[in-house]
Amino acid sequence: MSLNFSLRKLAASVLLVPALALAGCSSSGGRTPEADSGDGGGAVAGTDRIKIALITHGGPGDTFWDIVRKGAEEASQKDNVELLYSADPEGGRQAQLIEQAVEQGVDGIAVTLAKPDAVASALRKAEDAGIPVVSLNSGEDRSVELGAFTHFGSNEQLAGEAVGQQLAADGYTHPICVIHEQGNVGHESRCAGVKSKVPGTEILYVQGTDMTQVESTVTAKLQATADADVVVGLGAPYTLTILKSVESSGSDAKVASFDLNPDLAKRIADGEIIFTVDQQPWLQGYGAVDALWQNSRGGFELGGGQPVLTGPTIIDSSNAESVAAFAADGIR
After folding, report:
1. Average pLDDT for residues 302-330, to the nearest whole number?
2. Which among 58, 218, 255, 313 could bridge 65 via Cys, Cβ 3.0 to 4.6 Å?
3. CA-to-CA distance for 116 and 138, rounded, in angstroms?
4. Pairing mode, if any, of strands 133-136 and 108-112?
5. 301-316 in b/e burial notation, b at 16+ Cβ within 10 A?
């Protein structure tokens, strides 16, 4: 069965994100909560202005989170929302950011659950304060338990299985799946999904905050593993670094990926990377903020208690060029 056919079957059961009314917006960066009001054009909702905190586990330099944030900012501009964005890859510090948002009296919290146990206590404080919560990107299986009324993201286990299925169909038997954030439940699920379809898959842990270490560790692994035939990265910046490792090690291994950025899309179009699985992070940010606004204006709970899937979708040589144009605009 082809990967695209498998994903079409999955897509048939996915709840659709409502039609998006888009408006441009800009904001400043920072590691602590701050207002992102934006000054782009477009119609703005006539509802009372509310304050929403978006708190992710994004690390410095990971461009994936720029895309999530851009989607959230566009929804905020449309919905008359003051967006407070903050991020920290360390679970305890992410919990502190949640507690800070609760103390600020925000009207809603959108949060990633990469390390759900670390943030559970902080989310209970949000629940006790009557602040609605949605989750996004990671932790789908813990979302309801931790008080979120819906979740926006790709099912990571299914995405990993789809990748593994495609790799097996193409004859790969010894993938190396590179996890750049140990303890991230989404990353573990991705590689577990690949391994479930290709039992010869090895898991390699690297320190994602240090690209020099990522490159050297992957290079050493390839030099020691002559029969490795494909390396799978779990994020676009890391996959591009892995590509350097393959080249410098002299390995014949191919490269596949999860997630996307403009450079990765070009490398796929050029045939340097075989494919990537995109979870459409722009939709995750947009949907999370818009769902909290809908909840505030009418008590709506998008998803009916079930996750709203934003992926997976496959980017390969057949569609990489068209997707690259969207990636260049920062929305893929």
Report:
1. 87
2. 58
3. 9
4. parallel
5. ebbeeebbbbbbbbbb
Amino acid at 258: F
Q: Summarize pLDDT for 102-139 with one digit per residue, the tens.
A: 999 999 999 999 999 999 999 999 999 999 999 999 99
Listed residue (254, 280, 283) closest to 267, CA to CA: 254
Query: What are the backbone angles phi and psi of residue 120, rounded to the nearest 5°?
Result: -60, -45
Provide the token pair at 312. 């997976």
Query: Could you tell me if 213 and 201 are in contact, meaning their C-beta atoms sit under 8 angstroms apart?
Result: no
| Nearest partner of 164 among 133, 132, 190, 135, judged by Cα | 190
Coil, helix or strand for 10? helix
Q: Where are the alpha helices (DSSP H) in 19-155?
A: 64-79, 91-104, 116-128
Can the peptide bond before residue 18 be classed as cis, meaning omega within 30 degrees of 0? no
**Contact criterion met (CB below 8 Å) for 71 and 284:** yes
% helix, strand, coil for the chain, step of 5: 45, 20, 40
Which tokens go with 184? Answer: 């991230």
pLDDT at residue 4 is higher than 50: no
Name the CA radius of gyration of the chain, rounded.
Answer: 19
Per-residue pLDDT tens over the stretch 75-95: 999 999 999 999 999 999 999
Phi, psi of 118 (to 5 degrees): -70, -30
Query: Would you call 308 helix, strand, or coil by DSSP?
Result: strand
List of E strands, 137-243: 151-154, 175-179, 202-205, 230-233
155/143 Cα distance (integer angstroms): 12
Q: What is the pTM of this model?
A: 0.79
Number of Cα atoms under 13 Å in the Cβ half of residue 53: 31
Q: Which two tokens stand for residue 259?
A: 């997630």
How many other CB atoms sit within 10 Å of the CB of residue 4? Answer: 15
Separation of alpha carbons 295 and 302, rounded Å = 8
Planar angle of CA 182, 185, 188, nearest 5 degrees: 65
Nearest Cα to Cα of residue 328 among 270, 267, 238, 263: 263
